């Protein structure tokens, strides 16, 4: 029996529930409930057993189920448990009909997946309220599912964009690495080795060398502020301005009256780069620079240090000495003046020009390696030469960080004289 005390308005908004399933072994009870539900605008399915109800739920989507608790064969509670085990793309709202003798079992019903309970005889207003409650929950579930689908589509699109960018960055990394055509090269009795290891796909560090006239060799190390693509683009521009391939493009080189290649003073080159960055290249980046000119016969090194870390001179005996007087970075202050410093290498000496990525490596507790730590790694690897020494530096840094990787680009120029 159903006590209908609810006004039946025909102006209610169309329900979002697609189908209501009535499960009761009493045909009269189903007929009474069905009449009210159809009057409220719902599509109604019905059956008399839990087994039949499961078959219906497997065949089509049912949004709301109203099931009697006590039925022959499968009980309403057993049916509820089996219904919850079905694979569904949406939620189903489950209402159990109980008599007063089953009200104490409501906790058990909730544990088995029931959402609501109605006590027989069913009151129409109460039934309408339970259906409305289920409708709100189903509406929120559908909205959440739609939003999740939108999020998943957006994530898939973003992943596709990310993959495309990542492929481009991989190619950009190859191009950036190609700026260093030879990692190690001998010049008579001397040897130059290069290290360039970006922290990401691409980086803002650049190292290299170029012939600088008869028996002279240019060395440079650049560290552009920031990381990533924009910093890498600045390094690409700088690589062209210090290119060993073209005397006319290389700002550090010139020709004399007879057309012979000659080297320009490194402080003049730094000043020209400073003007170029501030006046012509529209970028927020600045960079540190170490530009050195080596006389391959005498071992004299003349260099300009523009904000770059101090070069490390390691004598043949193993001692390490920082040299240089510092200086302003390039592209930071208009009209900045730069100085030239000198040192002389003896046979067996070597000069390491490294970026601050080495000294700023941090251990697991956050303590940076510092200059003293770098000096110690150099001393420990004093018997190594060329690329093997640079590999030893990387191994020492990795050991210090505990294998956590490098937060900054790692770059260095190693000059071994005689």
From TrEMBL:
Phylogenetic classification of the source organism: Bacteria, Pseudomonadati, Pseudomonadota, Alphaproteobacteria, Rhodobacterales
Q: Which GO terms describe its biological process?
A: phosphorelay signal transduction system
Residues bearing PTM 4-aspartylphosphate: 68
Q: Which domain of life is it from?
A: Bacteria
Name the chain's protein.
Sigma-B regulation protein RsbU (Phosphoserine phosphatase)
Q: Which SMART domains match?
A: PP2C_SIG (SM00331), REC (SM00448)
Keyword terms = Hydrolase, Phosphoprotein
Domain Response regulatory: residue ranges:
19-135
List, alphabetically, the SUPFAM superfamilies matched: CheY-like, PP2C-like
Q: From which organism does this entry originate?
A: Rhodovulum bhavnagarense
One GO molecular-function entry: phosphatase activity
């Amino acid at each position: 029996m159903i006590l209908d005390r609810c006004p039946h308005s025909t102006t209610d908004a169309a329900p979002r529930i697609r189908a209501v399933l009535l499960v009761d072994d009493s045909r009269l009870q189903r007929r009474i409930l069905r009449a009210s539900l159809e009057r409220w605008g719902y599509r109604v399915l019905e059956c008399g057993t839990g087994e039949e109800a499961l078959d219906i739920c497997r065949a089509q989507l049912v949004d709301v189920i109203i099931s009697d608790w006590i039925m022959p064969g499968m009980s309403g509670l057993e049916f509820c448990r089996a219904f919850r085990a079905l694979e569904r793309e949406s939620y189903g709202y489950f209402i159990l009909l109980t008599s007063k003798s089953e009200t104490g079992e409501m906790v058990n019903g909730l544990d088995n997946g029931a959402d609501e309970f109605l006590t027989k005889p069913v009151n129409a207003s109460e039934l309408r309220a339970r259906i409305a409650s289920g409708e709100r929950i189903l509406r929120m579930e559908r909205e959440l599912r739609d939003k999740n689908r939108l999020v998943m589509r957006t994530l898939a699109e973003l992943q596709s964009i990310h993959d495309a960018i990542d492929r481009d960055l991989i190619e950009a990394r190859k191009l950036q690495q190609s700026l260093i055509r030879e990692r190690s090269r001998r010049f008579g009795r001397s040897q130059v080795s290069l290290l360039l290891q970006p922290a990401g796909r691409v980086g803002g560090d650049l190292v290299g060398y170029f012939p600088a006239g008869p028996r002279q060799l240019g060395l440079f190390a650049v560290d552009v502020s920031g990381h990533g693509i924009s910093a890498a683009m600045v390094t690409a521009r700088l690589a062209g301005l210090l290119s060993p391939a073209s005397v006319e493009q290389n700002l550090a080189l010139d020709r004399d009256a007879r057309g012979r290649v000659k080297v320009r003073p490194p402080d003049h080159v730094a000043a020209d780069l400073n003007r170029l960055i501030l006046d012509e290249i529209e970028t927020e980046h600045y960079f540190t620079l170490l530009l050195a000119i080596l006389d391959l016969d005498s071992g004299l090194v003349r260099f300009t240090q523009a904000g770059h870390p101090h070069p490390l001179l390691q004598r043949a005996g193993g001692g390490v000495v920082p040299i240089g007087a510092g200086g302003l970075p390039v592209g930071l202050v208009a009209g900045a003046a730069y100085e030239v410093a000198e040192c002389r290498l003896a046979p067996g000496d070597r000069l390491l020009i490294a970026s601050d990525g080495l000294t700023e490596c941090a251990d697991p507790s956050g303590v940076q390696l510092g200059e003293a730590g770098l000096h110690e790694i150099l001393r420990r690897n004093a018997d190594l030469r060329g690329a093997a020494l640079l590999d030893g530096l990387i191994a020492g840094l990795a050991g210090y960080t505990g294998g956590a990787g490098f937060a900054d680009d790692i770059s260095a120029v190693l000059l071994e004289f005689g």
